[in-house]
Amino acid sequence: MLTPTAELVVPGRGVGAFNVITVEHAEAIVAGAEAAGQPVILQISQNAVLFHHNRLAPIAAAAREVARASSVPVALHLDHVEDMALVEQAPEHGFGSVMYDGSKLDFAANVAETRKAVEFCHAHGLWLESELGEVGGKDGAHAPGVRTDPAEAVAFVRDTGVDALAVAVGSSHAMTSRDAALDLELIGRLREAVPVPLVLHGSSGVPDGELTAAVRAGMTKINIGTALNIAFTGAVRDYLGANPKAVDPRKYVAPGRDAMAATVEHFLRVLAA
Ligand code: G3H
Ligand code: ZN
């Protein structure tokens, strides 16, 4: 069933938030969540919207209908949005939350722009996540080596009114190996200091044990994207390698979708361990 994000992002447990690019991603994520018996968040990024010729409606409708038909609670989240015009489309398409990404801005500009997104979302009953940039480098908050300063995070949450905060604690986006080392001690300090749920981005590159430990240390929303694409593409490649004459996309997309579902189930079990 389609469920508000705010009901799933509850301190004390880790909820998986998986990136949706195509309808098969949504189907696989929900199948994996049903197999694990866990709630899940379907998130569509601004980049995924751009892939769909900059149209939110078709992919949002697909994800929303897959969510509605699910036997476990499923939330719909709009992810890494830099364009306020896209934030403003969220309510009409059934999203329960938005991540406004001002991480490329300096602190003051990030606060000012994030506040605008917060005001819009709260006026429409949506939950807003944001991210701190300029924490330790100009490559963004999730470049390797960048960390979030707890005092700065507290000030940012106070000044913006965000409902959740993405923090830089050692993960990094789009890793295809699972060897990121998280700063669990920093997660604990952020959890103590910051009064809203903490979000881990770039979780595909984090080993299983570190993910479980991160949830125990205080991370609440765990964002996973690349790992699904690794699973999907690997299965498609295997199928086409073994069946070079195949032309029906259903023949090779189906094993890709099954591989994504198995990956989602695995991650959700790791988060709940
Ligand atoms: O917001 C989405 C995530 O941070 C996904 O990152 O593709 O590295 O798992 P990932
Ligand atoms: Zn991210």
UniProtKB/TrEMBL annotation:
Output the GO biological process annotations, alphabetical, semicolon-separated. Answer: carbohydrate metabolic process
One Gene Ontology term of the molecular function aspect: zinc ion binding
Mind telling me which CDD domains this protein's record contains? TBP_aldolase_IIB
Q: What class of enzyme is it?
A: lyase
From which source organism is this entry? Longispora fulva
A Pfam family annotated for this chain is F_bP_aldolase
Q: Which residues bind Zn(2+) 1?
A: 80, 173, 201
Per the UniProt entry, the Enzyme Commission number(s) are: 4.1.2.13
InterPro entries in the record: Aldolase_TIM, Class_II_FBP_aldolase, FBA_II
| Keywords of this entry | Lyase, Metal-binding, Zinc
Q: Which domain of life is it from?
A: Bacteria
Q: What protein is this chain from?
A: Fructose-bisphosphate aldolase class II
Per UniProt, Zn(2+) 2 binds at 101, 131
Q: What positions constitute the catalytic site?
A: 79
The cofactor(s) it depends on are: Zn(2+)
Q: Which SUPFAM superfamilies match?
A: Aldolase
Q: How is the cofactor bound?
A: Binds 2 Zn(2+) ions per subunit. One is catalytic and the other provides a structural contribution.
